[in-house]
Design a protein that fits this description.
By secondary structure, the chain is of the alpha+beta class. It folds into 2 domains: about 40 residues; about 140 residues, no CATH class. Helix content is about 30%, strand content about 30%. Strands 1, 2, 3, 4, 5, 6, 7, 8 and 9 form a 9-stranded mixed beta sheet that branches. A hairpin with a 2-residue loop joins strand 5 and strand 6. It starts with a helix and ends with a helix.
Length: about 200
Amino acid sequence: MLRSTIYATLLLLLFTQSTQAASLVVNSNTVIGASGVNVNGILYDVAIGDGTCVSLFNGCDQSADFPFASSDDTINALQALLSILQTPFNNNPNLSFAGCNDQVSSFCLILTPRTLVNDNLISHFLQAHASTRTITLPTNFNLTPLPNASDTTIDDSQTFARWTPQQTNNVPEPNAFMLLGIGLLSQRWLRIRGKRVLV
């Protein structure tokens, strides 16, 4: 009975373990992005930093230039990013975000553009507060639309998050639990098969 439970647990681990965990990309106490952010089953690399919408988002002249087609998808993406950023930002007073200057502004908006309306950029955002060390995803907000020619290098309180889907591997790499599970199951199968042959 105990062996059956062990093998069932190993099988469960075999199917639930992920080969890659999301991680922050930090340079000298500055968050410049994140890797492996899971949004609806797709892994993204996120680059955080300044620039113009035109240079960062394929010309920034049509809604197809942005990574998420709907408001719900954009919010899901920001919730996934928030879960990675929240604990490190809360715990490290020296941590800041690329494109934001904590000395000048008490908060920073990390913008993810969603669509264009009359050449104005509509974005969802995470809001990081330097003084309270909190980062939130506002659900009720009135963000003044930015011109699509916006450049965050001239605003210390705003920066962009650029989302890029990771390349998928045609052949998935097994993780350690998978290999262990396969090995133990194979050993068990061979032992049972050997006993049947002897009888």
